[in-house]
Design goal:
Elements lengths: L1 H11 L2 H11 L4 E9 L5 E6 L7 E2 L2 E3 L6 H13 L3 E10 L5 E10 L15 E7 L10 H27 L6
Parallel strand pairs: 1-6
Antiparallel strand pairs: 1-4, 2-3, 2-7, 5-6
């Protein structure tokens, strides 16, 4: 009976008023984006950030702005922090369960350009940024991101094996 009265009142509110009330009474949290950016040699872009623990490397990324599309946010953050333009952006993982945020991870490649892209760091936030081959990765990478890089490169190897097998036989195997 009580819920019936509440729902009758609720239905009388306009859609925008309903959204405002939902926003007021529900949790607020941030969404961050980060990802693995590959160069033409399949080296991975890592950076040392002024806001992180000192001497720790991590993937480029940042906070999503209100109303921003996640892939655009990742592309914007990479451009702002390193001056690099990326393409072929694909989501590879969503991490939730934090109190005030969730993290979305992507994979991308440097966009093809007539001129070679050069890293131009945003000195207010970034201490250093550069590409590493898989066998030269620094040991001090953020743990979750290290696991993501390992997982991603295991998947990449399987995809390459599948492409080779498909080219030889004309058939495709599932990963």
């Amino acid at each position: 009976m009580f819920l019936d009265i509440i729902f009758q009142i609720w239905r009388r509110f306009s859609g925008s008023m309903q959204w405002r009330l939902l926003w007021l009474f529900n949790s607020k949290f941030m969404v961050s984006v980060a990802g693995i950016v590959y160069d033409k040699n399949d080296h991975i872009l890592l950076q040392r950030h002024r806001h992180w623990v000192p001497d720790v490397w991590g993937l480029p990324g940042g906070i999503v702005k209100s109303g921003e599309i996640l892939e655009k946010a990742f592309s914007r953050e990479v451009l702002e922090e390193t001056g690099l333009v990326i393409a072929n952006i694909e989501m590879i993982r969503l991490v939730s369960g934090y109190d005030l945020r969730m993290e979305v991870y992507f994979r991308a490649k440097l966009a093809k350009s007539h001129n070679e892209q050069i890293i131009k760091i945003q000195e207010e936030e970034i201490i250093e940024a550069r590409f590493f081959s898989l066998d030269e990765l620094p040991s001090s990478i953020l743990q979750l991101q290290k696991e993501l890089i390992q997982q991603e490169n295991g998947t990449a190897k399987k995809m390459q094996q599948n492409e080779i097998a498909q080219s030889r036989t004309g058939f495709s195997r599932k990963l």
